[in-house]
Design goal:
Radius of gyration: 33 Å
CATH topology of the largest domain: Immunoglobulin-like
Number of helices: 11
Distance between the termini: 84 Å
Length: 455
């Protein structure tokens, strides 16, 4: 058998060797039996039933004189149910959002308050379905009863019957009060591995594992650890706290350009100062790690903010496409790489428009009269279309003219022999990319709206 040396078990040997025999300040005991089908040097695995209340005893394990600053004071513990598999940890946000969508109004983790003892001010954040927290006094008996409402097979790929469920972790992080009365100073963290089954499924699984072990030879049984009546949570690293950014809307695209006056006069542009161009939300090499975290949140990469918490803008921008895909997986990796490189999505159709003005009409008249025509500079505006519909064109032209889309009655295209052809979706879909048009406006006969003609 392979010896359980740190070189072979890097995952579980994250704590320094001197901590192995250290007496921890607190101990947490989950009152549920461990599985007998776990090999000697592997982490314990505990089966739970969905929605059933399970007791976790919060024990003060301090030696005399240890942490005297919390004597007679409360501490805060935060409980989380998180993914054990690293692959799912990378996509935790998407997984939990998918669960929320399928189970509206439900929570992943709850406290059974009537059964719990010694807990003070229990709280459950409605936006964090897998987290609960409370205060407690280490000098008094404290037991919290938790309920886990998600089951392990809800996060597996549905390929065929009898899918193997994914393991979760129950993690507890405990904090003491700082000088400002905030519970931010970390004291202790511990966790254990669980799997959650439909009601009574955990009992059946425990029975099946026990029967399998009974069929093994005594020599094979020696390779497995016995089933313990309770599960002791083992010390682990604290769960990294993410500094959430305020949900301020990211700079939007402002497509209103210089205002055109649509009237019966010459229709020349009012040269008002244009609004500043939209700020491109590109990550800069000079961005600090904190600014890089904010950029990840703004661009819907919150899932990976913990992973990249020490990366500056320059660190992120140095990553190759292969690096990002390996870290984040193919789908999010490609999305993050494109966002880092600031790649713009090319519109389906671009057209250029210029409003017909009295100056242009005078020029045409001079040309017809045989006068010399001096070169004149005309300003065109680009219109980018994605949906290729008449409604979209109407809205974009209304923004260009700084009027309401309801004020545009019809849009026509000048056809052969000067006829006016009503613009339809099909016609827009057949426009050539980067076509140029001169806009002419006519007041509608009935109401206060306008017809626009593309020439």
């Amino acid at each position: 058998d392979v010896l359980a040396l740190p070189i072979f078990k890097q995952e579980e040997s994250s704590l320094p060797p001197e901590n192995e025999n250290k007496i921890l300040p607190f101990q947490y005991v989950l009152c549920a039996a461990t599985s007998p089908a776990v090999k000697l040097h592997d982490e314990t695995l505990t089966y739970l039933n969905q929605g059933q209340s399970y007791e976790i005893r919060m024990l003060d394990n301090r030696k005399i004189g240890e942490l005297p600053e919390i004597n007679g004071k409360l501490v805060k513990s935060i409980f989380r149910v998180v993914f054990h598999d690293r692959r799912l940890q990378y996509t935790e946000h998407q997984q939990l959002e998918g669960w929320r969508w399928n189970r509206p109004g439900d929570r992943i983790l709850d406290i059974d308050i009537p059964m719990s003892v010694g807990i003070i001010d229990p709280r459950a954040n409605p936006t964090q379905l897998n987290t609960v927290e409370f205060l407690w006094d280490p000098s008094k008996r404290t037991s919290v009863f938790i309920q886990v409402h998600c089951i392990s097979t809800e996060f597996t790929m549905r390929k065929h019957g009898g899918e193997k469920g994914v393991p979760f972790r129950v993690q507890i992080d405990t904090f003491k009060e700082n000088e400002n009365g905030e519970y931010t100073e970390h004291l202790h963290s511990a966790s254990c591995q669980i799997k959650v089954f439909k009601p009574k499924g955990a009992d059946r699984k425990q029975k099946t594992d026990r029967e399998k072990m009974e069929k093994r030879t005594p020599h094979e049984k020696e390779k497995y650890q016995p089933s313990y009546e309770t599960t002791i949570l083992t010390e682990c690293s604290p769960w990294p706290e993410i500094t959430y950014v305020n949900n301020t809307p990211s700079p939007g695209f402002n497509s209103s350009h210089s205002s055109f006056s649509i009237g019966e006069g010459n229709g020349s542009p009012n040269h008002q100062p244009e609004p500043p161009p939209p700020i491109a939300d590109n990550l800069l090499p000079t961005s600090t790690p904190q600014e890089a975290q904010q950029w990840l949140h703004r661009n819907r990469f919150s899932t990976f903010s913990r992973l990249f918490r020490n990366f500056s803008g320059a660190d992120l921008l140095k990553l190759t496409r292969e690096d990002v895909i390996q870290i984040c997986g193919p789908a999010d990796g490609i999305r993050l790489f494109n966002a880092l490189k600031g790649r713009m999505v090319r519109p389906r159709l671009t057209i250029y428009v210029c409003q017909e003005s009295q100056q242009l009409r005078d020029l045409q008249q001079k040309h017809e009269d045989g006068d010399t025509v001096t070169s004149t500079f005309f300003v065109y505006h680009a219109i980018y279309l994605e949906e290729l519909t008449a409604v979209e064109l109407t809205e974009k032209l209304a923004q260009l003219f700084s009027i309401s889309s309801q004020q545009i009655s019809q849009i026509y295209k000048q056809g052969p022999t000067g006829i006016h052809v009503l613009i339809s979706d099909e016609m827009i879909q057949n426009f050539q990319d980067e076509s140029c048009f001169v806009l002419d406006t006519m007041k509608a006969e009935t109401n206060d709206s306008y017809h626009i003609i593309l020439k």
